[in-house]
Write a structure and sequence with these properties.
This protein is about 15% helix and about 35% strand. With about 425 residues, the chain is mainly beta. A four-stranded antiparallel β-sheet has the order 1-26-25-24, with no helix packed on it. Strands 2-3-6-7 form a four-stranded antiparallel β-sheet, with no helix packed on it.
Length: about 425
């Protein structure tokens, strides 16, 4: 009899643990709108602007004119601004342009507008930083110069923590061999006056240099921290025809440790796959959502595949900064690498990006988190059936042993201690 009891306990814990590991939420994706450029753009600056953060701005970027394998990459200085609505975007006529054509910089939305950093075109890499502000009563964009980066940078990543914008890694030149480990930050507590302020050079990333990585800030259970994830670089002392090293590592930078003796950098659990150039956003209190990304699996076959390239993996992931764990969020309709993820209320917008080598998409996808349909699952049903059968056998066993009232009320004084 004690074996039946033990089996019942084991299945009870199986039932409990299985139910706790099921993902209670799922990612919902829908095509929300399109940017005005019919070819789409990769490497654009993008984010929310306006007093109510109800305006989407997309500026700069690059694409290839068709036939894409016979044309050279074109960079743009155009600025698109649209008013966000429930069913789509109302695009406005904007006369202002960026100072020059540029792509693959980094941008962060702040209360005063969109801060844009670095980037490059076919001729050079830039160190410039500027603020794009929406002037509602004039229906125009105002461009304000901010302190330049310590050196030119592109294909880097940035995030906001408190009153500081952080910029991590990236390339200092047009080639990937110039990938860096740099970490800088700028105090933006007063956007109206930057006199006496410049970018602060912080301890460099202890891991490999990288570019085309992803960067996000999120609460780690103690305070907000910066996360540097994945990326690629040129192999050290490589020979042959495969020069790239693809990274899956995850690093946390904790600014609260800058004043103490502890190293602000620490390693975390590797990403489940390589996530280069993925649209990424902090979501909720402790998650970082990664919506796609390139894994580099076909990078050496791009020229041979060309239009037969299947595109980048259509998978989304979530990293939990407190438990240091990754979970899959399911499939996404289109993986738009080197695009940005823009948080708009409870939704995430991904405005355009690269869907496969040299091919962009003008589509804007909207992602939201919804309750997953409840499924009891076969293991739960099996456990429940075995549990009920075990209880029935327990009843039959003790019924047969009951001979008198002493057996019924006191178990015949034969009940073991366990």
């Amino acid at each position: 009899m004690k074996y039946i009891f033990t089996i019942g306990i084991i299945f009870h814990f199986l039932l409990s643990s299985y139910g706790q590991t099921e993902n209670q939420f799922q990612l919902k994706a829908e095509e929300y709108s399109q940017i005005p450029d019919k070819l789409g753009l990769a490497g654009s600056f993008s984010g929310l602007i306006g007093e109510k953060n109800n305006m989407l701005l997309v500026a700069g970027g690059a694409n290839f004119a068709p036939p894409v394998w016979e044309s050279t990459k074109a960079y743009y200085d155009r600025i698109y601004v649209g008013r966000l609505g429930k069913s789509g975007i109302e695009w406005l006529d904007i006369e202002e342009t960026l100072a020059h054509a540029i792509g693959y910089g980094s941008s962060v939305s702040v209360d005063g507008g969109l801060i844009c950093m670095g980037g490059h075109n076919s001729e050079q890499v830039f160190d410039e930083v500027f603020l794009l502000q929406w002037i509602e009563h004039e229906k125009r964009i105002k461009i304000v110069s901010l302190p330049s980066l310590p050196q030119p940078a592109t294909h880097g990543g940035s995030a906001l923590i408190g009153n500081y914008i952080y910029y991590a890694c990236g390339q200092s030149g047009l080639g990937l061999e110039s990938a860096t480990k740099n970490l800088w930050r700028l105090d933006i507590s007063d956007l109206s006056d930057f006199s006496g302020r410049s970018w602060e050079v912080l301890p460099a990333l202890p891991g490999p240099s990288r570019a085309v990585h992803i960067v996000a800030s999120q609460y780690n259970g103690r305070n907000e921290a910066l996360y540097v994830i994945s990326g690629r670089r040129i192999k050290d002392h490589y020979q042959g025809s495969e020069p790239y090293e693809f990274l899956k590592d995850v690093w946390e930078f904790d600014p609260s440790k800058l004043e103490g003796q502890e190293d602000p950098w620490s390693t975390k659990s590797d990403a489940p796959v390589r996530l280069m150039g993925a649209p990424t956003a902090a979501y909720g209190q402790s998650h970082i959502f990664v919506l796609g990304g390139a894994d580099g699996s076909l990078i050496y076959q791009n020229d041979s595949l060309r239009d037969l390239h299947p595109g980048f993996p259509k998978k989304a992931w979530a990293y939990h900064t407190i438990t240091d764990s990754w979970i899959p969020l399911g499939d996404i309709p289109l993986n738009l690498v080197t695009g940005n993820a823009v948080v708009w209320g409870d939704d995430i917008l991904v405005p355009s990006g690269e869907m496969r080598p040299r091919v962009r998409s003008p589509k804007i996808f909207k992602y939201s988190l919804e309750q997953a349909p409840f499924s009891f699952g076969w293991l739960n049903y099996l456990t429940l059936i075995i549990y009920l059968i075990a209880m029935l056998l327990v009843g039959v066993y003790f019924t047969r042993r009951n001979k008198n009232t002493n057996d019924f009320f006191r178990g015949g004084q034969r009940i073991p201690w366990w």
